[in-house]
Amino acid sequence: MATTPLFYKDKKATARPIWLEAFAGIDWIALHASPVYYGLGVPRGNQSPVIVVPGFLGTDHYLAEMYHWLRRIGYKPYYSGIGWNADCLNTLTSLLMQTIEQGYRETGKKVHLIGHSLGGILARAAALQQPDKVASLITLGSPYRGVRSHPIVLQTAEAVRAKILSNRQKREYYPDCYTGYCTCNAITALQTGVPDSILQSAVYTKTDGIVDWRVCINDDPATDFEVKATHVGLAFNPAVYHLIARRLAKA
Description:
This protein is 35% helix and 16% strand. It has 8 helices and 8 strands. β4, α4 and β5 form a beta-alpha-beta unit.
């Protein structure tokens, strides 16, 4: 097994420069102006299945650019199928695991997972529960070592948690749902290391305006990749796309 990263169960607010996220559109413009977006200068895929997983409060729709790009460079992409990423993490992870099963069954090949922000946490939790069906895991600004986010993000997450706990069954069986203290399969999985059979890549940016980049990386520098981008822009940055193509080919 790979080194187990320290997982902080508590949550803390961090003074991130959230105003920088206003420049996320620059990442999108740069992507469309880059040859990598058109499949030029990157390794070609072998029709392996790749699942893209959206971040907090997002749906699969905003990852359509990445989905179609993956198809252009030779992979068989899949949307996560989790719906709106604003629900119990165990519930969402279970839905993602169904998509992993589908991709594995339909192609006969191990699945690659690409998760943005909270989507990377879901992808990691799913991969650790189905390691025999996962070839690689790429996280984009995903704070899987603990919740260290801007206060506005934490406040929004508390509203989501309150909605989840309005369900009596959730409140009774998982009173710590949507926190690092929950005893569900998804949160428990995050406290273990990724096996060596899964090629992992943690992409982060020090100008992240949403989460502390230090909780988005591993202990192994060989698996950590810094880019210049915004947190939101990690899903559209040309350097990230080039990195994804290289890591998928390596896996």
